[in-house]
Amino acid sequence: MKITRKENGTTLVQSETTMFTYSPKGDIFEAFTDTQITASIADDFDRSNIVEVRAFDKEKGFIYFKKKDFFEVNKFEDLICFIFEKYKL
Hints:
This protein is an alpha+beta fold. It contains two helices and six strands. The chain has a six-stranded antiparallel β-sheet with strand order 1-2-3-4-6-5, with helices on one face. It starts with a strand and ends with a helix.
């Protein structure tokens, strides 16, 4: 897994086959992935103590999050890596 943080606050998480990018500015933020977001993936994010899924576009790969009280960038990155591994993305 490769994590790249850009100066503008955007973070890119990449596996060999999938990428996930986000910029957690504000309490509600958007992320994008080049893989299809399934209900199971959204549920895994939602069940965390880190973010709440507000909406997602299954086909386009957009997902909208609201930060929970325990949100930290490093915890969110760990969650993304866990989901990549769980679903073999």
